Amino acid sequence: MSEQPLNPTTAPAPHSGATADEAPPTEAPGTGSVAEAPTADASAVRASATGSTAADVPADEAATLRAASFERARRLRQEPRFPGGPAADPAGSHHERRIRSFQPRRSRVTTGQQEALERLWPRWGLDIDGRRVLDLDQLFDGLPVVLEIGFGMGEATAQMAADDPGTGILAVDVHTPGQGNLLGLADKAGSTNVRVANGDAVILLREMLAPASLDGLRVYFPDPWPKARHHKRRLIQPEFLDLVAPVLKPGAIVHCATDWEPYAEQMLEVLTAHPCFENTAADGGYAPRPAFRPLTRFEGQGLDKGHVVQDLLFARV
Ligand SMILES: C[S@@+](CC[C@H](N)C(=O)[O-])C[C@H]1O[C@@H](n2cnc3c(N)ncnc32)[C@H](O)[C@@H]1O
Question: Confidence class of residue 21 from pLDDT cuts 50, 70 and 90?
Fold first, then answer.
């Protein structure tokens, strides 16, 4: 069974079956840790393998297995983790046989993040369900809009929103704790120019953005996927740029940054080769970090390891 490329331009093939490593992991209840969900009959299967009966499985272990099974079923129904909050896999994209740029994970959400999600998601959040084209004018009250893919915990995004209230930021990530964190930070700063989108940015670009609707794209420190066998998961690839180009206005800036030198080289190569983009750096190389881009959390970790950070700014022609 061959995997589809990262950014297929074809419509999703629902229920075509996910590969094992793309099946959504779930959290073992009460532990805050990430674990593969066992099937409903896991205890029975294990019991039969050990020659015991399901009734011999300790009660607390059986309860944990049952809870994990319920959790898996909940995710398959795409129900939110919190009342009125972001949906689990809103586009049902784990049914698409497609290489993803992120590893599905379910990390612990702090009380503050949960509070922010419950209180602020209905007002400032949106699920990437792949079922509608967004009216960005309406969503951002007529502001010019930049898309930021992969905001992580959102500190830099909140800072940029506060520094530039005249620009709307459509901030996308799959990471629930980060979504709560960004909502909380933007709320604390009194910013009204951030919308937090939950889900895979590829589906947003492919199905939910109108042509020439964005004034810019920011991709700061995307997962570097350093192993050769994972390079296909890197976001910045020719097919990704094919999805990006039509939704950008002429002159819109694609701004990428990375601390992973081989990925920086890949970004420079594919952006330079793409006919819809032109390097703003006069020498055709990397650009100095613009003053508006704050240091990000991931960047800080890279700098601590002695990595060199590169910014790339390309204009949509
Ligand atoms: C390495 S982190 C960088 C976070 C942040 N920009 C920073 O510099 O600290 C990359 C983030 O991109 C997100 N991500 C990767 N692929 C994505 C996709 N296709 N759609 C939405 N988010 C994605 C991941 O969940 C992760 O939070």
Answer: very low
Q: What is the mean pLDDT of the segment spanning 63-86?
A: 75
CA distance 180 to 106: 13
Protein residue closest via CA to atom 24 of ligand 1: 150
Residue 299 Cβ < 6 Å to ligand 1: yes
Q: Which atom of ligand 1 is nearest to the CA of 201?
A: 20
> Which residues does 168 contact at the CB level (< 8 Å), separation at least 6?
136, 139, 140, 141, 143, 144, 145, 146, 193, 194, 195
**Catalytic site residue 223?**
yes
How long a stretch of residues is the chain? 317
Report the distance separating Cα 233 and Cα 257, nearest Å: 17
Better pLDDT: 135 or 38: 135
**Catalytic: which of 164, 187, 223, 242?**
223
Tokens of 203: 């589906």
Residue 36 has pLDDT above 60, yes or no: no
What is the average pLDDT across 247-276?
Answer: 98
Assigned CATH class of 109-316:
alpha beta
pLDDT above 50 (res 254) = yes
Q: Is 296 in the pocket of ligand 1 (CB under 6 A)?
A: yes
